[in-house]
Specification:
The complex is a heterodimer of chains A (about 210) and B (about 300). Chain A has about 210 residues and is mainly α. Chain A contains 12 helices and no strands. Chain A folds into 2 domains: about 15-110, Orthogonal Bundle (Fumarate Reductase Iron-sulfur Protein, Chain B, domain 2); about 115-195, no CATH class. The radius of gyration of chain A is 20 Å and the shape is globular. The mean pLDDT of chain A is about 95. Chain B folds into 2 domains: about 5-130, Glutathione S-transferase Yfyf (Class Pi), Chain A, domain 2 (Up-down Bundle), CATH 1.20.1050; about 145-299, Rossmann fold. A 4-stranded parallel beta sheet of chain B has the order 2-1-3-4. A 4-stranded parallel beta sheet of chain B has the order 6-5-7-8, with helices on both faces. In chain B, α1 (about 20-35) links the parallel β1 (about 5-10) and β2 (about 35-40). The radius of gyration of chain B is 19 Å and the shape is globular. The model of chain B has no long low-confidence stretch (mean pLDDT about 95). The chains are: A mainly alpha (about 210), B alpha/beta (about 300). Chains A and B meet through α6, α7, α8, α11 and α12 of A and α2, α3, α5, α9 and α10 of B.
């Protein structure tokens, strides 16, 4: 068990709802769900959620902590915002799902090789390096996430598309070496470090 | 002086030789005709996009957006921030609303920004280019500079998600937004009247991680355009454009289809209708070329 997870279990014991309210983005909305299921029916990847959003909300209230946080479900969110605009009680469902995914990821409970978890991590780490996304490095990092051999195979599968994009001037091979970026990389790094510290203290990650 | 001036937030995908560089090319051409002056926010950064939440968390994401706001306030005071990318606009608007609603979040954000020598005064307004066109100009004004009406073209207006939900364009419905259809009509083309996939999600960032599931969505989006007799699809979102265009080849392999449907930006249609060349409109940046639109551009 990660230290952060052990600390959370000790702090909240059986009150998972309280844990979500205090630590998950927009978590204070969870108790407002009235179980109509419109969110689940509106989700483009709805059939692939082991536990659709309204079920997740009920499971949180029922204290089924491990099942929720180790679930693959929240990682199915495409950020289409259908659920938000249709929810009769205006719960910010998309953000709650993002928040739960982020929290599970932070505690080390999210499924290890969940592809969206892997991609999302690559994406953020890619963009904070220079302040802007380097699309070529991001694609390559994704192709090679399962090792060199699979990476070559993945790259070959996308070869025609890649060459087409290069020809259309929508992919720059030189991005591998330099590429776009912000000037004030130092300031961005310092500001993000501070933001992480403040967030950890606001969400009681330290005590 | 230009008729309208805005602080411009182009976003990562619109940079030179990035996946939506042709979007920016066509926006520049369109803005020239409409006498819109866009000044890039100096040293702007990524908004975190729709997938940044997992590793980035809440405050770091807002701080990234607030850095752009602070830079805009400092260097381009009084100007509204205009984004062309749907995700940039959404991410920025989300941050603005959250910060406006919480004094604590605002204070925390500014404490972090201080590390980069910046301060956000909460004065910016965030808008999408489509809002600028519809609200600051209006369809009549947008129709006036048309010199090459796009007659004979039937166009499926694929609105997608992120310019439509959760904020949307004022006066439009989430389920059946009409602005792209009206724009298509303004330019002299025929909008597909019953394009039932107009607000279907293309999978967004999950096109990279959940390829099969996303490609099933994209297949519906393209198939419906064919069923309604469309010559091309038009969209306001760089990720919608890339996903729906790029993956047609893989969908053909997976499903045995023969898709070859051009997917363009609204700004490309406008550039051509305003007399722009294939190059001005960034049509040379299509993976799937749009021959009928190019024909009009070459007339």
């Amino acid at each position: 068990m990660s230290d952060l997870n052990a600390q959370a279990v000790a702090k909240y014991r059986t009150n998972f709802l309280k844990e979500v309210e205090e630590r998950v983005e927009e978590g204070e909305w969870v108790k407002m769900c009235m179980q109509c299921g419109v969110c689940s029916g509106s989700c483009p990847l709805g059939p692939y959620w082991a536990h659709p959003p309204q079920e997740i909300f009920m499971m949180i209230r029922a204290g089924r902590r491990d099942e929720v946080l180790t679930s693959d479900s929240m990682w199915m969110c495409t950020s289409c915002y259908n659920c938000i605009v249709r929810c009769p009680r205006k719960l910010p469902i998309t953000h709650i799902m993002h928040g739960l995914a982020n929290y599970a990821h932070r505690l080390g409970l999210a499924p290890k090789n969940q592809p969206t978890r892997v991609f999302a991590t690559l994406f953020w780490n890619n963009l904070i390096r220079t302040g802007r996304v380097n699309e070529l490095k991001l694609s390559l990092a994704l192709y090679f996430k399962d090792g060199f051999k699979q990476g070559i195979q993945n790259a070959l599968n996308m070869q025609k598309t890649g060459l087409g994009l290069m020809k259309a001037k929508r992919l720059n091979p030189f991005e591998l070496f330099s590429g776009h970026g912000c000037k004030d990389k130092k300031g961005i790094a310092a500001m993000l470090k501070k933001a992480r510290e403040i967030e950890a203290s606001r969400k009681h990650f330290a005590n | 002086m230009a008729k309208k001036e805005y602080a411009f937030y182009p976003g990562c995908s619109s940079q030179s030789k990035a996946s939506a560089s042709n979007y920016l090319t066509s926006v520049n051409s369109m803005c020239k005709t409409l006498d819109i002056k866009l000044t890039e926010i100096p040293d702007w950064n990524c908004c975190g996009a729709s997938i940044g939440y997992a590793e980035g968390g809440e405050l770091p994401r807002h701080v990234m957006n607030a850095r752009n706001f602070a830079l805009a306030e400092q260097h381009l005071p009084g100007q509204q921030v205009v984004a062309t990318c749907a995700a940039c606009w959404l991410g920025a608007r989300e941050t603005k609303e959250r910060l406006d609603a919480s004094a604590q979040l605002m204070a925390d954000t500014n404490e972090a920004l201080k590390e980069a020598g910046l301060h956000y005064k909460a004065e910016v307004e965030i808008r999408h280019m489509v809002e600028v066109l519809i609200e600051d100009f209006g369809y009549d004004a947008l129709g006036k500079p048309v010199v090459k009406p796009l007659g004979g073209l039937k166009i499926a207006g694929y609105v997608g998600c992120q310019t439509n939900r959760p904020f949307g364009i004022a006066g439009e419905s989430f389920e059946n937004p009409m602005y792209l259809d009206k724009l298509v009509e303004t330019l002299g083309a025929e909008p597909v009247a019953n394009y039932e996939q107009k607000v279907t999600c293309c999978g967004g960032a999950l096109a990279f991680s959940e390829t099969e599931k996303s490609q099933a969505q994209i297949k519906n989006i393209v198939e419906s355009a064919y069923d309604q007799g469309a010559d091309l699809i038009v969209t306001p979102c760089p990720l919608c454009q890339a996903n729906v265009e790029i993956y047609q080849e893989q969908i053909n392999k997976r499903y045995g289809t023969k898709f070859n449907m051009p997917v363009t930006y609204y700004s490309q249609l406008m550039s051509v209708a305003y007399g722009g060349s294939t190059k001005d409109a960034g049509l040379d940046g299509q993976l799937i070329r749009a021959p009928k639109l190019e024909e009009i551009a070459k007339k």
